[in-house]
Amino acid sequence: MDATVGIPGIAHVIQQAIAPVFLLTGVGAILGVLINRLGRIVDRHRLLANTCDGSPATGSSEMATLARRSQWIHRAITCCTLCALLICVVISALFIGVELGLDPSRAIALLFVTAMFSLIAGLLCFLREITLATGTIDANRRTPPAT
Question: How many helices (H) and strands (E) in the chain?
Answer without folding.
Answer: 3, 0
